[in-house]
Amino acid sequence: MGTLTEITSLERETAFKNEALKVIYQRRAIRKYKDISIDKNSIEKIIDAGRMAPSAMNRQPWKFYILTNKEEIKVFSKEISKAVLKGVAHGIAKSGLKGILKLGKEILHFPHATDFFKLEDPVFHGAPVVIFITSPKDNEWAVLDVGMCSQNIMLAAKSMGIDSCPVGVGKFVEHTKIYSMLNIPNTEQVQLSIILGHGDENPVPNERNKNNVIFL
Ligand SMILES: Cc1cc2nc3c(=O)[nH]c(=O)nc-3n(C[C@H](O)[C@H](O)[C@H](O)COP(=O)(O)O)c2cc1C
């Protein structure tokens, strides 16, 4: 298994040699943002990079629903966190002790999950831009396509000095009473949300497992 030192030295080594690798190694999931908005031009440039992702049969199944209003983002965050807690409670009620143990394990695995109950904005972390990415419900490859598109978005943002975090719990927006405000047709589903902004933290990279390659 690789160590943190290996990751950071690789980061250093690649930093000045290859712009694409530099951006790949420097991107982090950022969960604290400065109160600085992102201009529409930059958002459009970033989304355009997302559109350049490959997609199965070139279907380009993604659609982007973007919030940039601070107050609206706060309301969505609050409603989503309520839906998450309701979902967790429902999950526990359904699966009993096994469910509680599973959740406990997940919370221990993701340190930020324990903050969920403490933070003012545990979902969107005070970011000035939230992108909900949807795809048609009847496209079985869409989850992969959206994943590729999302990584393009986050790397493009990083290359422009803008930080990001993929927010899976953003999917819970579908279970909020304000979901209709997004005007997402019933034929689409939310696959992921991504937040963008100017980061106000510099987390150390999570250690990457290195025992997962088999040369044959
Ligand atoms: C599909 C997906 C969903 C995620 N959902 C969340 C989330 O809901 N909240 C959050 O704070 N981070 C979320 N993350 C971020 C991961 O926790 C983070 O990418 C991981 O810990 C690795 O850290 P790094 O991105 O800094 O390398 C998500 C990442 C992915 C790929």
Task: Provide a short characterization of the protein structure.
The chain is α+β, with helices and mostly antiparallel strands. The protein is 42% helix and 13% strand.
Protein described:
The protein has about 220 residues and is of the alpha+beta class. It has one domain: NADH Oxidase. The chain has 5 helices and 4 strands, in the order H-H-H-E-H-E-H-E-E. Helix 2 packs across helix 5 and helix 3 crosses helix 5. It is globular and about 50 Å long. It starts with a helix and ends in a 19-residue tail after the last strand. The model has no long low-confidence stretch (mean pLDDT about 90). Bound molecules: flavin mononucleotide. The site of flavin mononucleotide has 12 residues, from strand 3.
